[in-house]
Amino acid sequence: MKSILIKIVCIFVVLSFMISCKKKSEKPITKIEWKSIFNGKDLEGWTPKIMGFEYGNNYKNTFIVEEGLLKVSYKDYDSFNNAFGHLFYKTPYNNYRFKMDYRFTGEQVAGGKAWAHRNSGIMIHCEDPKGMELNQNFPVCIEVQLLGGNGIDERSTGNLCTPGTHVFYKDSLVTEHIIKSSSKTYHGDQWVNVEIEVRNDSIIKHFINGEAVLTYNKPHIGGGAVNTGDKWNSKENHPLKGGYISLQSESHPVEFKNIKLLELK
Fold first, then answer.
1. Locate the 3-keto-alpha-glucoside-1,2-lyase/3-keto-2-hydroxy-glucal hydratase domain: which residues (predicted)?
2. How far apart are CA 72 and CA 62, in angstroms?
3. What are the pLDDT digits (tens) for 57-112?
């Protein structure tokens, strides 16, 4: 009789464990929620800062919305005249994934730099644009450089540029301004998907059309390429833990769509 009771208790324990496991497995999986940060109608939530003009001045309608697309436009320009611009999203972030589609269109405006042909970028970990100087060309930040092919040469996209910053790449400090990605070249006016994974001041990854093309870490203040004088000298080597996101205008028309962000806890 005692052995039968022991067997019954064991069976009960096993059944209870199986039921418990089943209930746990039936818990709904949390869905990943990407947030759209561009409404496709206007520039709500986005503010321009263009070199030579106050924050908020959308000089010559550089940034416009047409047909649901966010565009860098030079229709009202006669010459570029070093009007480097950045369109800032209203909220700073530090741990997130950002993605969108982009394409270059038309011809570069007169007066643009040769290196700016089919050239734009996503600036992450940006300084507060309200504190930028009137004639500042770029924010201190990390730039995910977007390049289009010229129809002939190899020209990777999703590269890294470092205006006023340095990073560690393959466990070594890199002070050069550009680190090229492993992406292929995208010629013509085709849409290209870019995604960035940002983990505070640790790891940052670039993806082009779903493929990882560049990984680096430890972004921090350092170097030149930003005309702010000695403003940042006291912050040399300080880690970049977060900041604003901006889209760049460098003299070539470019279009953006499906601009989304996922915060990482």
1. 33-261
2. 6
3. 999 999 999 999 999 999 999 999 999 999 999 999 999 999 999 999 999 999 99
Domains of the chain from N-terminus onward:
31-263 (2.60.120.560)
10: which DSSP letter? H
pLDDT, tens digit (0-9, with 9 covering 90-100), for 29-52: 556 789 999 999 999 999 999 999
Q: What is the average per-residue pLDDT within 240-249?
A: 97
**Kindly report the CA angle at 125 between 122 and 131, in degrees rounded to 5?**
100
Lookup: tokens for 200: 């505070």
Contact 264, 97 (CB under 8 A): yes
Tell me the three state secondary structure of residue 240: coil
Report the Cα–Cα distance between both ends of the chain, in Å, rounded: 56
Q: Encoding tokens for residue 185? A: 């070249």
